[in-house]
Amino acid sequence: MKTTVSVIKADIGSVSGHCVSHPALMEKCDEVLANALETGILEDYYITRCGDDIDLIMTHRNGELNEEVHKTAYDAFIQATEIARDLKLYGAGQDLLSDTFSGNVKGMGPGCAEMEFKERRSDPVIVYCMDKTEPGAFNLPIFKIFADPFNTAGLVIDPSLHDGFSFEVFDVMEHKKVVLDCPEEMYDLLALIGSTGRYVIKRVFKKNGEIAAAVSTDKLNMLAGEYVGKDDPVAIVRAQSGFPANGECVEPFAFPHMVSGWMRGSHNGPMMPTSQEEANPIRFDGPPRVVGLGFQVTDAKLVGPVDLFDDPAFDETRRQSANIATYIRRHGPFEPHRLPSEEMEYTSLPGVMEKLEPRFEDMDDD
Ligand code: 13P
Ligand code: 13P
Ligand code: MG
Ligand code: MG
Ligand code: MG
């Protein structure tokens, strides 16, 4: 019998501004998911938040893109949005683009990462939740976990990892996908995924086809046909026994890599790994956060989690991230702190251009 892990997330309102989800919203989600547990749709669940995004981590026997599971998550978000509206929370219902459910959450606003697998004798699974960034923020850490031998010792010294992994990459602009093998096609893979706003790692597989990782790649700007927001992403990664070790899966986050998002979804800034409790992006609405939760998946139940970045060994990373934030912030409205105009979530440029249009003159040749 197979087990499915589904992580469905949405920002449905926060306090104050875009900082933190209100506990009442999480309680409502808990109520809806507890009901789904009782009716047998779910086997288990755990609810967390990263900043203003609520993450529903669910296990069940129904496979990926299951209508009942997706409807459960959507109903939870819809019902919690009513509370968000009553409390006049900021951005109430922000990520819900439609109030009529049609089969699954694809294209409806929430982000989703899912994987179905046959449980091993022991099956460690890690869920990462990010805020104030975009799905491409996972490209660098997922690459390092599954393809960089300087990160993952197992690629070199563990025979069960030595063959490497295959990466499924989405071109989110053209709606196309390609699968590239590592280490054989590593340079081609890097040529694509270095463009984090366009090429996004969606899944990673072992060479025998077994699923190793899945990332939510839903981009609100593409879904809505216009730029309504970056989608704060989630990822699921399997660890140990044929996959990278738990410690190899958290190691890339010891480097506070630059991602786009942060203030108004329009700035580059350093990622900061934190505990669930400290996932409160406050300074300039950031810097961007990542939370990591380590579970054992046992007969479709979630044992755990361990709050993976609640480890003093990541204190130095957090300090570095804060220092980088101070440095890059001093650029104010200049690139590369501010994103290039075509990638900004907010822009006054068309209005400014319209106003200045009559004052632009041809340049003399001198
Ligand atoms: P243990 O010897 O504690 O099982 O650890 C093995 C391992 O692979 C750690 O990364
Ligand atoms: P969220 O995408 O987390 O809602 O943040 C939006 C924003 O504009 C933060 O400044
Ligand atoms: Mg928000
Ligand atoms: Mg958010
Ligand atoms: Mg966002």
UniProtKB/TrEMBL annotation:
List, in alphabetical order, the GO biological process terms annotated in this UniProt record: gluconeogenesis
Fetch the InterPro entries from UniProt: FBPase_V, FBPase_V_sf
**Where do the record's region annotations for Disordered lie?**
346-366
Which superkingdom? Archaea
Q: Where does Mg(2+) 3 bind?
A: 230-232
Q: Which residues bind Mg(2+) 1?
A: 11, 18, 52, 94
According to its record, what is known about the domains?
A: Consists of a single catalytic domain, but remodels its active-site architecture via a large structural change to exhibit dual activities.
Query: What this chain does, per the record?
Result: Catalyzes two subsequent steps in gluconeogenesis: the aldol condensation of dihydroxyacetone phosphate (DHAP) and glyceraldehyde-3-phosphate (GA3P) to fructose-1,6-bisphosphate (FBP), and the dephosphorylation of FBP to fructose-6-phosphate (F6P).
**Subunit structure, interactors included:** Homooctamer; dimer of tetramers.
Which protein are we looking at?
Fructose-1,6-bisphosphate aldolase/phosphatase
Q: Give the species.
A: Methanobrevibacter ruminantium (strain ATCC 35063 / DSM 1093 / JCM 13430 / OCM 146 / M1)
